[in-house]
Specification:
Elements: H1 5-24, H2 31-40, H3 48-55, H4 59-71, E1 75-79, E2 87-91, H5 93-113, H6 119-134
Antiparallel strand pairs: 1-2
Length: 135
């Protein structure tokens, strides 16, 4: 199994998720809600559907995550510019602040998860993962 990429990726994901969720807990976030917050803070003004597609989540899961973040006044929905029925999601001022702080904590968790790698190896791993995912 140690030579199986799927197994290795799954193990790395689990270890990273534990560290990420621990780091994000102080902000009342978990990986999924942080991912939604990150997309909302990206400046791209993604729609709920685009978020669901990018994160490979069911649209109902995205709605629940956005509802939670909106209830905490971290994000807001607005009608889409091209299709007013589509809702775009952006961060509020408070959401931007929480995102910046949570990002710092997530980076520390990532560093802990990849501590056995050199900076060069860590960069290569990320480049290879991006290539495998998006070409």
């Amino acid at each position: 199994m140690a030579g199986d990429a799927g197994f290795l990726l799954a193990k790395l994901h689990v270890a990273g998720s534990v560290l990420n969720n621990r780091a994000l807990a102080g902000f009342g976030l978990k990986e999924r809600s942080f991912s939604v917050l990150a997309l909302a803070a990206s400046g791209l003004e993604p729609t709920q559907r685009e978020m669901a597609e990018f994160l490979s989540l069911d649209p109902s899961q995205i709605v629940a995550l956005i509802d939670e973040l909106e209830g905490r006044e971290l994000v807001m929905r607005a009608p889409g510019k091209q299709d007013r029925r589509a809702k775009t999601v952006t961060t509020t001022e408070e959401g931007d602040g929480v995102f910046r702080q949570a990002t710092s904590a997530a980076r520390e968790a990532e560093a802990a998860a990849l501590a056995r790698l050199s900076a060069e190896e860590s960069g290569q791993l990320k480049a290879l993962l991006r290539k495998a995912l998006w070409g």
